[in-house]
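Long-time lurker. I teach an intro course on protein structure, and each term I like to show students one example going from raw sequence to a predicted 3D structure in token notation. This year I'd like something fresh instead of my usual example. Would anyone be willing to generate the tokens for the chain below so I can use it in lecture? Attribution to the forum is fine with me.
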Amino acid sequence: MKNLIIIPTLNEEKNINILFKKLKKLKIKSDILFIDDNSQDKSQEIIKYLSKKNKFIKFIFRSKKKGIGSAHKEGFKWCYRKKYKTVVTMDADGTHDPKDIKLLLSKLMSFDIAITNRFLKRGSLKGWPKLRIFVTYTRHIIVSILLNISIDSSGAFRCINCKKVKLSDLIKAKDNGYSYFWESIFILHRKKYKIAQVGSKLIYRKQGTSNIKFKDIYYAIYYLLIVFIKKMIGKYNYNKK
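-- Reply from a regular --
Happy to contribute to a lecture. Here you go:
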């Protein structure tokens, strides 16, 4: 199997089956790796059941919540050990439309990395609460200004050519939470990887509740300022292993 789809989960029992059915309809030859952070609902039971019925379903169950960034890092390590050629990362909550995967994969013909961009199409956040829209746009503007990158860096819907992108660069970001996403793009951009952006509409979660807490937002702002200051004084070493 040449492609892997990594899906971190945390209490997503209402969304896992829905997402699986959508992925199966695409008929993309791909393995799927679920990485669960000790969900307290039936997420792990559902994943185990799917794995028994489908050999291409793999999973890693972790003993505690270690963060979505940490889950991506662990998934990438597993992916590179198994020698997959390409890897897709996406959320389990239904916000990412699996139909975009084929377009993302096609971009790897000319690019090293392909990501979705929520700001290329008007109405891409249609139906989202106004507060979430405000936070999303504000974060994008602040990250773009402070880190000097115009890419939609905080999204998790990505596609990577494992033959061109080094594993060490994918796991170099220090943050293990939500800030992993913009920090990793900051590093990959500085490393001169070719990054393609695909306009995409984000579907608002219909089942379950968001795992993002206000403390995550506060910490993300603090951590962004730390990275910005280190960048300005030349102490953010993205070449360090």
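Some talking points for your students: The longest strand covers residues 3-9. The chain has one domain: 3-232.
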